[in-house]
Amino acid sequence: MSTEAIQDETIEFQAEARQLLQLMIHSIYSSKDLFLRELISNASDALDKLRLAAYQDKDLEVDTSDLHIDLEIEPEGRSLTVRDNGIGMTRAEVVDLIGTIAKSGTAEMLGKLREARESGGSEQQNAELIGQFGVGFYSSFMVADRVVLVTRKAGAHSGVRWESTGEGTYTVSEFPDAPQGTAVTLHLKPEDTENALQDFARPATVRSIVKRYSDFITWPIRMAADVRDGDAKDGATPPEPQVVNSGKALWSRSQDEVSDEEYAEFYRHVSHDWREPLETIRLSAEGTFEYQALLFLPSQAPMDLFMRDSKRGVQLYVKRVFIMDDCEALIPEYLRFVKGVVDANDLSLNLSREILQQDRQIQLIRKRLVRKVLSTIKSMLADEPEKYATLWSEVGRALKEGLISDHDNQQSILEVCSFATTHSDTAGSGDAGESGGPGDSRDGAARPTTLHEYLERMPEGQDAIYYMTGESRSALENSPHMEAFRAKGYEVLLLTDPVDEVWVDSVPSFEEKSFVSIARGEVDLGGDDVDEDTRKGFDSLLAWMTTTLSDDVKEVRLSHRLTSSAACLVGDPGDLTPTLEKMYRAMGQQVPKVKRILELNAHHGLVTGLRTAQEARPDDQALADTARLLYGMALLAEGGELAEPASFVSLLSRRLESTLS
Ligand code: ADP
Ligand code: MG
What we know:
alpha+beta; Heat Shock Protein 90; Ribosomal Protein S5, domain 2; Four Helix Bundle (Hemerythrin (Met), subunit A); nine-stranded mixed beta sheet; six-stranded mixed beta sheet; 18% strand; binds adenosine-5'-diphosphate; binds magnesium ion
C-alpha cells in the first residue's frame, strides 16, 4: 500500500476550463440543482457506452448484469456521491475530458460572457449564456467546494483519483482499488437558500430533483431510503436502496402519457441545451420494419451550428440499446439542429458508421425523418407563425443549405423558407405607413416573406422571382440595380446570407417561376423607350469605353435597369458574384479576378455628355478619367469596394478642379 501515492500530480486546468470554473464557483444561477441532472446524464452515457462496448468486444472483461447509478448521501460529512458502474475513464481520459473543455463554441461563449460583463450585462444574462452552453461536469462546483472523482476504465486493472476545489489546479493519482466505473463525490457547500443552495445532503431533496430532471433515464437510479424520512426500520441493518426513477424510455410510452415537462427534460438530456424545445415530433412505424423516433426542434440555434465540427443531434438506439450519438446516417447535415432519438427494432447491434450509411432501412428512416421535419415546419408556418418565425431566424441559414444538397426535397424546403424583400415592410403586421425609401434601412424589423406570399403579390406582367444577393440589406436596397424594379413595383428578394450566394444557382424555379438575379444577365422589363437609332448613336462611345476600361470590365453596354443612376455593374449569369469572390478569397482560395459588365443609362446627362465630348475630342485624356470615374461610382453605389481608393480620389479631385478653372 505504501507506493500508492508515487504518481500524484498537480495539473493546471486549461485556460478556458479555468474561466468556466470561476463562473461556476461564483454563479448566482438560480437552478443550481441541475448539477445532479448533469452528473446523472454523464453516468447514464457511461452505462450506455459500456453496454455497447461489451456487445462489440466479447473479450472485454466486465460484468454488465447489474448496470445502475447509485446516489449516496453522507449527511454528517455533507457529501453526495453519484456512482455508476459504466465505462469509466483512463488517466489520460480524465486529464483530457475533465481538465479541458474541447467543446466547440467555448471560446465564443466566454467571449460573449466577457462582453456581457463589460457592457454591464446582468448576472441573469450571464447565467443564460452558461446554461445555453451546457454546463456539464463543472456545474458540480456550483454546489460543492471540493469534488473527488474516482474511476476505473472497463478492462483496466487500476483506477485513477481526481480531486479539485475548482481553483486553478487539480490533482490526479493512481487508485488501485477503484471499482469499475466512475464515482463523483461532491463535498457540499453549506446550505444557503438565499442563493438557491438547497440542502443537497437531504435525501428527500435529492429524490425530488431526480424525479424532476432525470426520471426518463433508462438505467435504475438507486438511493438508500432515508432514515430521517422515516421509511427505514430502526435497527442496525442499513436501509435497502430503492429505485427512484421510473426508467421507461419516453419514446416507447404512448404520446399522451408523456408530459411536456418530461419531454423538455429529455430534450435537455439529448441536446445539452437547457431551454425548452420549440417543438416535439413523434414518429413511429410498425410492420416488417419497426422503429420509433422522438425528435425536437430547438428554440435557439445550437452554439456550434456553423462550426466545422458541429454535431448532428440524432442518437441511434436498437431495441432500447444506445448505439451512437451524432448519427449522420439518420439526418442530413442541413438538419443538424434537429435533436432526438431513433430506436429501430430490427438492426444488428454491431453497426459501424460506414455500414449504417449503406443500410437500406436506415436510408428509409432518414427519408421519412426529413419529410416529417419539413412538414412539421410547414404546419408551424401555417398554424403557429410566431413559432415558425423563431425557428426561421435561428436555423433558417442552416435549412437553406438543403436547397443545395437535397434535390429531392428542394421544393418542400423552398415552401418553408422566408426572405427579406423590398416589400417586406408592407407585408408585416400593423403600421406600414412610413415612407421607407432608399437609405431607410430596416434590417431585422420587417417580417420576412415566404415565396407563396411573394407569388400572391406578384403584379400582372411579372413572370419571374427577382432577387439580389449581397452583404447587407441596406446596400441592396440602395443599389442602382433596383431602380427599374422599384419603378415597376416589382418585389425583389434581398438575400444577404452567404449560403444565398450558392443556392440561387442550384434552384431553377419555384412553382414554375424562375429565379432571376437583378444584377446578372440582361434585364428587360419592357418599359424602355430607347429606340434602335438612339442605341446606334452610342455605339462608338461603348466601344471606346470598353477599350478604355478593359482592365476592369469585360464590356460596356446600355442598360434597361436604370432610371436615375448613370451606371451600374452587372455579371453574366454564370459569373461569381462579388460577395462570393470575396468569400473564396477570405477562405484562402485563389480565384481569378472576375470582370463584370458596365451598364450605362442612355438618359443620364453624364452619359450623353460624355458621348458628345468623346465625339468632339477623341484624344482627350481627361475623358478617359471620366470613364474611370463612372466605373468607380457604379462600384461605390452598389456598396462595393474600390481596388485603389486613393487613385479614385485623386482622379476625382483632378476632375473637380478642372470644373473650377
Ligand atoms: P458532456 O457530457 O457534454 O460531454 P461533461 O462536462 O458533462 O460534458 O463531461 C465531459 C466528458 O467527461 C464526457 O463527455 C465524458 O467523456 C466524460 N465523463 C464525464 N462523466 C463521466 C462518467 N461518469 N463516466 C465516464 N466518462 C465521464
Ligand atoms: Mg455531460
